[in-house]
Amino acid sequence: MIQEFFAALTNPGVPFIRYALIAGLLSSVSFGIIGTFVVVKRISYIAGAISHAALAGIGGALYLKHAYGIEAVSPLHGAVVAALAAAFIIGIVTTRYKEREDTVIGTIWAIGMAIGLLFISKTPGYVDPMSYLFGNILLVGRQELFLILLLDLVVITIGILFYQQFLALSFDEEFTQLRGIRTQLYYILLIFLIALTVVLMVTVVGIVMVIALLTIPAATAGIFSKKLWQMMVLGGILCALFTSLGLGTSYMLDLPSGSTTIVIAGIIYLLSLGSRRFI
């Protein structure tokens, strides 16, 4: 069966499998970098809220497109607007009103899902919300690959330019602020990067898989890493490994690729936690 999978990868008649593998490998760059900040900063719940809020934009875009024939509006455009709006609200509330942070994040999480499902329910024709919750990486095309590559370039560039600021922000925000660094500005910038990563990947692999791939590879890498950049590199490698194994296993066993990838990543993470005592 392994031979069949490799034969499918090289078969010019079925490019979607090859595109899916490339998408998984390219996505691993952004997931490794941004996921590291999410795990170290312990803000996975913020990433979850933004990803679910993106469903509101996706649903709104689908409604405008099918109900009013506005072809220029795509689910990706709606997701970008909703995710950046959610990131802005969360960033402002987090930096200024920390005592209400969890309440606002939970509210955005719930309202985003609710609005998205309401729009989808009123959209003419049949729209399966499960495709946006769990995604289907096998539907990735050339356009999505170029968008993922562009996101990688943006994340890598900003990550290099502001690495020291993000490093200080992740481990000692109060000390960083005392040194005169504008922590609020960099924190909101980080939230926006999370939003951009989440929104693009939601349209490719789904909301649930985005949260998993933002946290599990980076958390696994953190077990074996002593420095932040090491965690980013190893997190990206692990993410690429998880998506490749998930895609290959799902192809051979005829299983959903996203769910298979998450299960494999979760098992390896739990095994890594168990091996910590021997390291």
Shape assignment? globular
- Which percent range describes the beta-strand content? under 5%
Q: What level of helicity do the residues show?
A: over 70%
The topology string of helices and strands comes to HHHHHHHHHHHHH
Number of strands: 0
Q: Characterize the largest beta sheet: strand count, sense, and whether it forms a barrel.
A: none
Low-confidence stretches: none
Gyration radius over CA = 19 Å
Give me the CATH superfamily.
ABC transporter involved in vitamin B12 uptake, BtuC
CATH architecture: Orthogonal Bundle
Query: What name does the CATH topology carry?
Result: ABC transporter involved in vitamin B12 uptake, BtuC
Q: Termini, distance in Å?
A: 35 Å
* Structural domain tally: 1
| Average pLDDT for all residues | 85
CATH class: Mainly Alpha
Structural class comes to mainly alpha
- Number of helices, counting only DSSP H or I runs of 4 residues or more: 13
